[in-house]
Amino acid sequence: MELIVLAIKDIFRRKGKSLYLLIAIVIPVAILSTILLTFDNADSSLSTLASKFGFTLIVQPKNIRVDKISQIGVNTQEYIPEGVIADVERIVRETIRNPKDKVITVVRFYQEDDLLIGKAKVSSVVAGIDFKTELEAKPSWKLTSGRWPENDQEAVLGGSYASSRKVSLQDTVTLGGSEFKVAGILQNYNSSEDYMVFAPFAVIQKLYNKSGFVSVINIQNVSLDKDKKMLQTAVAEINKNIPNIMALSPQQFSTMKYALLKKSLKFLMAIVVATIAVSIFSIFNIVTSVLYSRIKEIGLLKSVGASRSQLLTIFLSEYLSIGLMGGLIGYPLGLIMTYLLDSLLLKLGAGIKINILYVLVALLVGVFCSLIASFYPTYRLSKIKITDSFRSQWEG
Amino acid sequence: MSEFIETKGLKKIYHVGGQKVEALKGVDLEIAKGDFVVFMGHSGSGKTTLVSTIGGLTRPTEGTVLIEGNDIWKLNDKQLSHFRNRKIGFMFQSFSLLPTLNVLNNVVMPAIFSTNSERKDTEALKSKAISLLTDLDMKRKVNSFPSELSGGEQRRVAIARALINDPEIILADEPTGELDIRTEREVIDIFCQINKTYQKTLIVVSHSLTWLEKAKTIIVMKDGLIFKDLADPVEAIMEGVCKS
Q: Does the pLDDT value for residue A3 go beyond 70?
């Protein structure tokens, strides 16, 4: 029998208290794991989105605030004048200096509004797009059913949007008082597009009295794709010469989006720190009460020859094991919470992947909470005099 | 019998509620190797303090405790733990066994704190524990837990545990307290057997008259000092220091 066996037997003996300790560790670990995994998903989702778009260069309004970003991660409140489009194209052409090199410009107009499906109002993000240009830039874009719109009163729905709202082909949806017939359902691409409603660009612009404005300008060009230096020059020139806009490469776009998310990370991390602090306080109280009830046991162990270091080994092994268990349970719980958060709220759609680094972080946080909180009471207890322990006095 | 345990000017002062309580007032004592000593005295006479000071459990305020000529209170914490582990086998009135461990593991438990590599030979340890439990008529209970044992059986297991590291001294504080007369006699007989068979030095604190019949030396404590050696149990009863 080894010291660790004594520790493990004690965990099972005090099932109730061990369970409390475990819960106190699992909660902060699960919250931390959820935040880390969600941000990881957000990052990969944004990167996937940017690369899937196949765009070389993205132009959007300058200084988009986090609170102006819609629930599915697109800007629906800041706009760029249409006049900028020509300036952007001119700078791109001047940079590539090859008139034969095709430049495709795709513009979108985003608006967040309540969509009337039957009698139900559903908060939605509507994208005004030019279907022909979009398909030219993204030939991989496919419908799972129906066809692309053929007139101004037809719309296409994102796959997840249609399935979650139970909207079918030929159903009629009402937007800003105008009716649109669902002509097609878009395939899911694990991006924010899965949750959008697509309608003709000019119609949507007009419907929201924003004629002459766009939400984003996407440029596709092979030369810029191949030559990153040339791409950076184009980005720099656009940013230098056109005010109130921000040009980005897809990579920068992803980084910028992530930076926006990171702003909220500070707040969320503050929550994690607060949760860890509460957890440590709770563990400290539970451990103190458990150890208090074990004073006689400590006296017995000391009397048969247990040294202070051996006692510390027994008790800290016990709390280390609970900390590790907390990490092992907290991480999968975090995975489930991340999945639920994504499915019900964030709609990042990046999928849930097990990240070994975060598993290690979860284990470390579990062990950290457990050991930090239990060290002082354990240390005090190891110093108790044997005779005092038999009198059940806590004198340290 | 040669000198084995010696105390010189042993004093112990407790601070209770801001007041000084002198539990030991300068005890000089010699115990020979292989002796069977029973300490008696009224509650608060200092007998438990004296025994726990000899056993390395309570640090004296003044004076020395020499075991085989070595002052045990000059040892550091680790050395003192080692001393308790190797030289002393303890028995207490209550809470003698760990409730999480079965009888066998309770008996081998002191060995896991031992630094001696031989004592960590699990199989040899288990064999020794079973042999001790067999001697104490407890073999059938090796897999039982303390909660499943009677008071007498718990004492037998505690005795086996006290012997597992083959210590030279067995210290027992009220080892037969709360036991009925019959079980008490059985436990005392076991102690006599240990003293005789294993040649251990036994130091027992008790209020029970039954011990007087068997002990080689009886020491009566009063007000933190050795009152007198009493060889006659009747005299002890007259002094009112033990139960008749």
A: no
